[in-house]
Design goal:
Chain B: InterPro entries: ABC_transporter_permease, MetI-like, MetI-like_sf. Chain B: This is ABC-type polysaccharide transport system, permease component. The complex is a heterotrimer of chains A (540), B (316) and C (297). Chain A is of the alpha/beta class. Helices cover 45% and strands 12% of the residues of chain A. Chain A has a domain of 164 residues: Periplasmic binding protein-like II (D-Maltodextrin-Binding Protein, domain 2, 3-Layer(aba) Sandwich). Chain A has 21 helices and 17 strands. In chain A, the strands form 6 sheets. In chain A, strands 2-1-3-14-6 form a 5-stranded mixed beta sheet. Chain A has a 4-stranded mixed beta sheet with strand order 8-11-7-12. Chain A is globular and about 70 Å long. The radius of gyration of chain B is 25 Å and the shape is flat. Helix content of chain C is 73%, strand content 0%. Chain C has 15 helices and no strands. Classes of the chains: A alpha/beta (540), B mainly alpha (316), C mainly alpha (297). Chains in contact: A-B, A-C, B-C.
């Protein structure tokens, strides 16, 4: 007993000592942190002679830029950062610290970084990270004057319509990416099985149904598909993968859908039509009910914990919905490695609707947050990342000869694999500073480029202009109604889309009634007013 | 004795001044606690003001426009606030009451069992669920109840019974969720009661044995009464957060399955769904404030009632 | 007399073994499934579901986690350091606080108890707290941020107060005061010894909290080598979750491979492993009669 006691007491005295040590090291670490957390204090008298002003901006003081990107930092970030800093110190008398938010609770962190006002010089922006709303609330600095002054090359290089697309209430708040990509949903299926059971080629909902039916009948160990639960956001069409596909066959509005159960036709975009109130809506829900009854997906699909792509790649399901062509390419390359005997087919949504839109300029971009102390240097540095091939390749692909090599036909090729190579292609998630003129692609990405080529070759697909991305919705007048509607959608629309409501007519009526109760009419009216004003302002 | 007398003599003096005079060392020992909560908890409370503003980046905390109770409106707009409030309170009551009762029961069994090794091993194993994150719990539950290949339905089919479509049967989940929570926290709570039982002096038991009390009588007349204060303390403590749910449990197990919401939606999941797409500081703070005020009223009332009758059990 | 007592004791033990055995099984089974699943090949988990024994044995999941061992080792070191340091220093502060708050002659004890408890009712929310810790206390990206904000909690203080109240009779404190011991000495040489099971419990809870914490790393740590173990694992998992839930329209495709079902399970095993082996060492403080022995000895 005594022994235990003394042991405990000596442990406690160790604590006392330790607490002292902790506070001690805390304070010394504080000093070090001050310099990294606040670039202003780290400004040192410029020792380098490269202080000559460039592009007409003052670079006499050496500064450290804080750069924030989403996702996880690549393993070899430190090495790349050192290389970039060698260049940047010489060119712009600055260094940069690349920070990553990780993918855990990204939205929360993004919001905290901006709200807390800690100094950040470059911040990733995207439509799917609510660029418009943040810009509207004043999170970023306007760039209309900074860019022409600090980065005249970039200002000229990015086409004017891209700059215009980034305007929120008349001002530019982000530097847009210029690579033209398309991100519609892609239905991925097993072409080998389709041929085996001789169902017609899949080109629309009817032929898809025939295929799924054949799978159900002939492959007892497979489930035809998984009702993918994905969140489409407030006012969006719902949570399920199939619901929106149906809606999109009417709306011809793929990249970003007009919310609140409305849709429009690209030929007359200002006209909004009420989809949830239409006969088509009920019919679509009936189709989904029929599919569910036929057993195309699990009865427990709404709570599924499975990863549909994972299930597809392992042969449990025969059809999966990829949320963009890139994901389809990933699935394709995995299947080719693990199941070379399979054949994978796809049907992308534009092929059904005959219409596609490239992403909006705000899809990927970089903004200078309000808290930045060095907006000019930040923009000048960012311009280097886009336009200067050395910077660009370093931050997109790593070090040539160590991380990657360029093949004879001009493709990117990774050296080693992800275990040995600490910097894969686009490991810094450099979607925003891709430069289409010098961009390198991996061979597996050809599958995506083929889809793009298909759209651009015509084949009855009209390429439209993404209008919705530039629209800044002001939901302040119906904020409470809007969240209430979202609740109603999750409780009543989602089961309907999953085909879990036995009486579809009644279920649809209940949903409409509840949505009305939540204030749908007010939302739709107010939204239509804003939408039409916006269409008018851009001359549509 | 002396303490009691001096207590009576100095009643007029303010308690704090008295302690400053007489209990300097105690105050000093308490200082880290006071400083910690002042900095870590009280300073950030200025943020409650967010609940009444429409946040913008130019204004910040105090410069953004004041909007009164606008941010609270979303809680009431969909008309389900009453239902989810009731759900939240009932689930929490079930968690607290059933959970604690079972923990007391198991702690008593463990403390009186003849084989120490068996007790130790099973106590360790009971701690395992605490480590299983709710993400994994959600996956396991899905594998249990999934209609086509779930364990439950496979068993039922083996006995030629009809499968259950669990994921569209809301009523079932009331029991599943409560059972899961109790399962997960059993080991944790048992330790508290076990430590409390160990704090009971063995002279009580020896005296009881001499009086000829058997083991059941000892438990009834010594162990249980002496665990009551701990139970009341834990109960009171949990009351303050009765409006806050076990978000992870509900979110991971139920997810966005609207079919089950009538029975399984609680305030935390409701607020999460409302705000996740466009996080609004004002609305988030408003929802938190609604939960706080409700919990505050409940705990103040109950504590006051208890203090009137049994001062020694009161929380503060 | 003797026979009756023995009979009831036997009856009690039979009941106890059956009930405890059953509950133990319920707690063990899911964990067993996790362990078994983590040693199964991913394809078999997807096609056959969870089994008591792996259908197709495979170490792939563990290989995936330990592919780059540096990450896991760093995370383990951070978590072990934080857990030990945080638990020991927290235990000191909490036990002092709990001791003071239960002293009957400390008149403002109810006021201070309320001061502590009130923080569980009202919180300022994430943003002001985040601003405080990053912009004013400059704790961002410091190991200290993983320790300091969780060093005590109202629950643990009030629990400690209750334990001390139960296991330290007022008379002992009073007689020690009469003997001329000051308040800290009473705490140091009497109270700590008498409330060992309580201290062990609080220490265990604090340790568990530190061990399981991912939230602080998520918010405040930028350098991957300073991630705590749980966050390191949680982040592997969450990345996949986030990418999966991104709606159509976000042209995001991460170059990082999405962890498989079995990796998730292996992560759970990796995270629990070491601490569960530590538990028996803590258990030695849970021996009946310890308290009384300490008083007499």
């Amino acid at each position: 007993m005594k022994k235990g006691m003394t042991g405990f007491i000596s442990a406690l005295s160790a604590v006392v000592l330790f607490t002292g040590a902790l506070t001690g090291c805390g304070s010394s670490a504080d000093k070090a942190a001050d310099s990294s957390a606040a670039p202003t204090t780290s400004v040192t008298a410029a020792t380098s002679t490269a202080a000559a002003s460039q592009n007409g901006i003052d670079t006499s003081k050496e500064v450290e830029l804080q750069f924030y990107m989403l996702g996880n930092a690549p393993r070899d970030l430190e090495i790349i950062q050192t290389k970039v800093n060698e260049l940047a110190r010489k060119d712009l008398n600055c260094t940069v610290k690349f920070n990553y938010t990780t993918w855990s609770d990204t939205n929360t962190k993004y919001n905290l970084l901006l709200s807390s006002g800690q100094p950040i010089d470059l911040m990733f922006t995207a439509d799917w990270m609510n660029y418009n709303q943040y810009a509207k609330k004043g999170a970023f600095k306007p760039l209309d004057e900074v860019v022409p002054k600090a980065a005249p090359d970039l200002w000229k290089w990015i086409p004017e319509n891209y700059w215009n697309g980034c305007k929120v209430e008349g001002k530019i708040y982000t530097i847009p990416a210029t690579w033209k990509e398309y991100v519609p949903g892609v239905i991925v299926y097993r072409e080998d099985l389709r041929k085996k059971y001789g169902t017609p080629e899949i080109k629309d909902i009817t032929s898809l149904e025939a295929y799924l039916e054949a799978i159900k009948k002939n492959e007892p160990n497979m489930i035809p598909t998984e009702e993918l639960v994905a969140d489409w956001g407030i006012g969006g069409p719902g949570f399920t993968a199939w619901g929106p596909i149906f809606e999109q066959t009417h709306t011809s509005n793929f990249g970003a859908t007009v919310p609140y159960g409305l849709y429009n036709d690209y030929k007359n975009p200002s006209q909004l039509i009420d989809y949830w109130g239409s006969e088509e809506f009920v019919n679509d829900m009936k189709t989904l009910r029929r599919w569910q009854e036929k057993g195309f997906w699990s009865k427990s699909a709404l709570s599924t914990k499975e990863y549909p792509a994972d299930e597809f790649e392992n042969g449990k399901i025969a059809c999966v919905m990829a949320s963009n062509p890139g994901k389809y390419a990933t699935t394709l390359s995995k299947v080719r490695t693990n199941h070379p005997d399979w054949e994978v087919g796809y049907l992308s949504a534009p092929e059904v609707a005959g219409y596609v839109e490239p992403v909006h300029p705000i899809h990927n971009g970089f903004a200078v947050p309000k808290s930045s102390e060095n907006p000019e240097r930040a923009v000048a540095f960012y311009s280097k990342m886009v336009l200067d091939k050395t910077y660009n390749y370093l931050t997109e692909y790593g070090i040539e000869g160590k991380n990657y090599k360029i093949t004879e036909d001009g493709h990117y090729e990774m050296i080693g694999d992800t275990t040995t190579n600490g910097f894969a292609r686009e490991a810094m998630n450099g979607w925003a500073w891709r430069n289409p003129e010098i961009q390198l692609f991996d061979k597996s990405f050809d599958a995506v480029l083929d889809i793009f080529k298909k759209y651009e070759a015509g084949n009855g697909i009209v390429i439209g202009e993404n209008l919705f991305g530039g629209f800044v919705e002001d939901y302040a007048p119906y904020q409470a109604e809007r969240t209430a509607l979202y609740q109603v959608q999750s409780q009543y629309l989602v089961p309907l889309m999953g085909g879990f409501v036995a009486d579809v007519d009644k279920g649809a009526a209940t949903f409409r009634e509840k949505a009305k109760g939540a204030g749908l009419e007010k939302i739709q009216a107010e939204f239509t007013k804003q939408w039409q004003a916006y269409c008018k302002s851009i001359g549509k | 004795m002396t303490v009691k007398i001096s207590n009576k003599l100095n009643r007029k003096e303010s308690d704090l001044i008295y302690d400053f005079k007489k209990n300097k060392i105690l105050l000093l020992m308490l200082a880290p606690v006071v400083v910690f909560f002042f900095i870590n908890s009280y300073l950030p409370m200025v943020g409650i003001y967010y609940a009444f503003t429409k946040f913008d980046f130019n204004g910040g905390l105090f410069g953004s426009p004041f909007v009164g109770f606008d941010n609270f409106k979303f809680l009431f707009q969909s008309g389900t606030i009453l239902k989810i409030t009731v759900n939240t309170v009932l689930y929490n009551l079930a968690f607290i009451v059933i959970g604690n009762a079972l923990q007391v029961f198991v702690a008593i069994l463990l403390s009186e069992m003849s084989s120490r090794i068996f007790a130790k091993v099973s106590q360790s194993i009971m701690f395992l669920p605490y480590f299983v994150s709710y993400v994994i719990v959600g996956v396991l539950v899905y594998n249990l109840f999934n209609y086509e290949s779930g364990f439950v339905n496979t068993m039922l089919q083996n006995f030629n019974m009809d499968p259950i479509d669990a994921y569209s049967t809301p009523g079932l989940w009331k029991f599943v969720l409560v059972a899961l929570y109790i399962w997960k926290m059993l080991g944790y709570g048992t330790v508290i009661y076990l430590a409390a039982i160990l704090g009971i002096g063995s002279e009580y038991y020896e005296a009881a044995k001499i009086d000829g009390a058997n083991i059941f009588q000892q438990i009834r007349s010594i162990t249980i009464p002496l665990l009551v204060p701990t139970f009341i303390m834990l109960f009171l403590f949990s009351l303050g957060s009765i409006m806050r749910g076990q978000f992870d449990l509900f979110y991971q197990v139920i997810g966005s399955n609207g079919l089950l919401f009538d029975a399984t939606d609680i305030i935390d999941t409701f607020v999460f769904r409302s705000l996740k797409m466009n996080f609004d500081i004002g609305m988030g703070t408003a929802a938190g404030l609604y939960q706080s005020v409700f919990g505050f009223i409940i705990i103040i009332t109950v504590n006051w009632l208890i203090k009137r009758n049994h001062e020694e059990y009161a929380l503060f | 007399m003797k026979v009756r007592e023995a009979k009831s004791t036997i009856l009690f033990n039979i009941l106890a073994y059956i009930i405890v055995g059953f509950i133990t099984l319920l707690c063990l089974l899911p964990f067993w499934l996790i362990v078994s699943g983590s040693f199964t090949s991913n394809q078999s988990i997807i096609l056959d579901g969870y089994r008591l024994f792996p259908q197709e044995f495979s170490l792939d999941a563990y290989k995936a986690i330990f592919k780059i061992p540096k990450g896991v080792i760093d995370a383990y070191s951070v978590t072990i350091f934080v857990t030990v340091a945080g638990t020991l220093s927290g235990l000191l502060l909490i036990s002092m606080g709990g001791y003071v708050l239960q002293r009957k002659d400390f008149r403002s004890r109810n006021k201070f108890s309320f001061f502590v408890y009130f923080t569980t009712l009202f919180q300022g929310g994430l943003i002001p707290w985040y601003i405080l810790l990053t912009n004013f206390l400059h704790l961002r990206d410091k190991i200290a941020v993983l320790i300091l904000p969780s060093i005590m909690s109202p629950f643990l203080i009030i629990l400690m107060k209750n334990f001390i109240k139960m296991s330290v009779p007022d008379e002992i404190i009073e007689s020690a005061k009469i003997d001329g011991a000051n308040d800290f000495r009473i705490y140091y040489s009497i109270v700590l010894n008498l409330s060992l099971p309580g201290l062990a419990t609080i220490g265990l809870f604090l340790g568990l909290h530190y061990w399981n914490d991912w939230f602080m790393s998520m918010l405040f740590i930028d350098t991957p080598s300073k991630y705590s173990l749980q966050f390191f694992l949680y982040n592997l998992l969450n990345g996949a979750e986030f990418l999966r839930n991104l709606s159509q329209g976000a042209g995001v495709y991460d170059s990082v491979a999405i962890p498989t079902e079995t990796t998730k399970l292996a992560m759970a095993v990796v995270a629990v492993g070491p601490i569960i082996f530590l538990y028996p060492f803590i258990q030695k403080y849970f021996v009946k009669g310890l308290t009384i022995g300490a008083v007499k000895g």
